[in-house]
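user: can you give me the structure for this one chain? tokens are fine.
assistant: on it. calling the predictor now.
[tool input]
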Amino acid sequence: MIKKIINILAKAPKNTLSQKELIKRLKVRKKDVGAVKILIRQISNSGEIVKLKANHYCLPNLPKKIEGKLSVTQKGFGFVITNDENEDIFIGRRSMADAINGDKVLVKIKGRSNSRGLSGRIHKVLERGSNTFIGVTYFYGGKIFIEISPVNPGRGIRLIGSKKELSEGKIVKARVKDWGNANNPIIASFESIIGNANDPANDLKMILHKYDYNQSFPSSINQEVNKYSEDDIKNEIKNRLDLRKEICFTIDPDEAKDFDDALSIKKNKMGTKIGVHIADVSHFVTPSSLIDKEAMNRGTSVYFTEGVVHMLPKELSADLCSIRPGVDRLAVSAIIQLNHNYKVLNVDILPTVINSKARFTYQEVQNIIEGKNTHAFKAQINDLKKLSIALYKERSKNGSLDFDIPEPIFEMNDKGVPHEIRSSERLISHRIVEECMLLANKVVAVEIPKKIPKKLNFFYRVHIKPDSLRVERFAGLLKRLKLGVYIPDGDMSPNDFKKILKHVEDSPYRSLIENVALRTMSKAEYAIKNKGHFGLAFRHYTHFTSPIRRYPDLLVHRMIKMLDSHLFELKNEWNDKIEDALKLSNEKEIEALNAEREYIKIKQLRWLADRINSVFEGAITGVTNFGFFVGLKSSMAEGLVHMDTLENDEYYYDEDHYCIKGRSFKEEFRLGDRVHIKIVSVQIEKQRANFALHNQS
């Protein structure tokens, strides 16, 4: 059978086939398909064939070299992410040559392992990700260097042209003069001082400079925005469905200032009519305007505890587009008629004018639900609760995944150091808003493509099924933890993941399993071709509900307006723009996620730095050839227990079993193991915390 598989691949175009097509050409009986899938995985793990993205396989000599973008992790290793069917390629710390995070590279395939999958080494840097660095100064050999994150290149970055008074620990901006090679430092020219790295007040400033974020807008854009006023809203009302007498209200976080969605709900003879009313940003942000170009380049709003980088100027986001209570606001509404079993009967998606009757916080709605407070809209809130429960049950039945992973919430002192880190809380009120938004996004993705010409590109929020190798690793962790949960052979469906997550709800390993399951998933993205949404178990899904903070949602609103005005003659211009916009939006989303994570990491390190020698409980979240990482239960902060600090034995990294193992006494440290650690040191400039096991026996 193995020889037959190899022969079939040898005759295939580019020696590559999907698993489905490979099995079809093998002409196996239906009852043997499962066994053949296992065999294919086994010979892929042995290196006889190579697993690519999207469940495709090829012969191992193809491809020998692959282009992609290098993404380096805080742990020191990295992955080359490709734009074709190849899976991400693992790059060890010693295999990066002179490449650094963000570079476009040519990688040479080395082979495959059970723990890492496809691995390679950097053959050549094709294009540098950036020519500027934001880093922290330090002295070495009488010369000044800068430290950058996520990982400083081993050869170092030497700073030239700096002021004489420049000292260690300064955050600086520098521009590359000479990239050198793997054996010589990068030479960078000093440009400016951002601040002192030891001052927590500069944490956000450093992130803003590093990611080239600007919290303000150019004067030309402000001038364009200032042309709009409340009169523009008044003049537009006559062109819209007037829903100002309808009871609708917003539900948002306490600190929110831009309200981009409101809800209404009414019972009728057919069942329930739900209105999801979204701020009509597209009325003010018109195609090719200065505001539009800026919003497209920003792609998304980026949120930090100490500030926000808005996609739109506050005159729009917090005023003219914001659904504030008691004022008329333009909206694009999805009005959905459901039957008594909460199944969709019909949908209207159209421009409207609304007037919000109340601004609720999540906690206020929660208090009303729990009977702690009352309100004139209590009946509507309870109807929304019933609706959300029904929608959630239906999603769950279909296998929709619901990751309940808390986010760290920082309570800061006046110096910018967290004095408390607590987990975010998920309330029933959060579920209400979430389910209504999911419903609206789904019905828009179903209904709008039906109404547009076939040659006009719609786009979707797609989430493909996870890579088989990642699923295998996840299954291996579950088996090792002996949780008593059924683990299917081969690929997992959304329902398989759902059952596993349900099984571990009361387990001490719940947080670990949810995090690893989430990392097992593919990255959701925007695409013109609909591939479905694996995590939500939806066949059709898009983003419609947040145009104040997400550019793709604004594009969906424009398409709805095109339906209303029949501007289909612009389809060529639209199709050209949409591809560029989606590509940029996908990139900006990842960039924003990285910026938010880096900010969180720095603030967690600030918290740890005030607790040197303190002992905490945690779980092993990652294992490498130089030690293991531990995530703390209380603060969700992470640090490294270096292998050299382990006592009572000589330890080594067992790659095949993904663990640290003692040679003599066979003690093992594996993913998921619970340990107690002591905080040894914190290096803010390296974004690293060093732990040691407490009372290792």
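assistant: here you go. Residues 465-521 form one domain. The longest strand covers residues 344-355.
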